[in-house]
Amino acid sequence: MLLKIGFELAFRSSHPTPMLLMLAVHPTVSHLLLHPEQIESDPPVAMDGYIDVYGNRCARMVAPVGLLRLRYDNLINVSPHPEPAYPSAMQHPVEALPPETLQFLLASRYCEVDR
Question: What's the pLDDT tens digit per position in 20-59?
């Protein structure tokens, strides 16, 4: 099954603004894409790619003063079957989780989660 993926983002900056972007599909599924991933920017901005500690493809850039638009469109070939459900899976109380898992429960500082 083909699934359309993509985004269009717009940012307005009053100063040159460093940005880290996490907008790419994970490398483990990039082979399912029908087209190479390419983020378009208007105006054109140089982006340096890197892989973070979790294996995510990221990019860094400096947004120019004024309006910056980022755009991406693609198709990904995904299975038409739902992922398996695990009704017998246990839910653990937060206080019983090992400390190394707590970082995955924190809200993103980039999202307005307090609204």
Answer: 999 999 999 999 999 999 999 999 999 999 998 888 899 9
pLDDT at 112 over 70: no
| Pair 42, 69: CB distance under 8 Å | yes
Rounded to whole angstroms, the Cα distance separating 25 from 56 reads 8
Q: What is the helix, strand, coil percentage profile of the chain, to 5? A: 10, 40, 50
Distance of CA 60 to the CA centre of its chain: 13
Residues in the chain, how many? 115
Ramachandran angles phi, psi of 32, nearest 5°: -85, -10
CB 45 within 8 A of CB 100: no
DSSP symbol at 33:
B
Q: In whole angstroms, how far apart are CA 58 and each of 2, 24, 51, 108, 115? A: 24, 7, 6, 16, 27
N- to C-terminal Cα separation, the chain: 36
Burial class (CB in 10 A: 0-12, 13-18, 19+), 17: middle
